[in-house]
Amino acid sequence: MGSPEKRAHCAPLAGRLLELLCSISLNPEAAVALYRNNAAAKSIEWMRAFPDDSSVQRSGCCFIQNMASRRLRLREALLHTGAFEHVLPLVQRYLEQPEVLCEVLRA
């Protein structure tokens, strides 16, 4: 993703995109469309690209939680993307930031 300076400028955009996905995924039909277009895998990719950005992690966990609550097949797809393996270490990392920790625990 380029230099650290460019990466730092991309983190807020990734956080906003994940917030948008989180909101859109509340609609069951939209959640299925997101699933079919690999949005879960992309969200994990962004979360891995910006591991120290709490906004990205919080929004990503919110999106994962919304997707997981929709249908069994979406939960299964999340398992295959590595979503839960990514989320578990976030508990330790964000113990001091309750707003992030709440989303991590919901996911």
TrEMBL record:
<dbReference type="InterPro" id="IPR016024">
    <property type="entry name" value="ARM-type_fold"/>
</dbReference>
<protein>
    <submittedName>
        <fullName>Uncharacterized protein</fullName>
    </submittedName>
</protein>
<dbReference type="InterPro" id="IPR011989">
    <property type="entry name" value="ARM-like"/>
</dbReference>
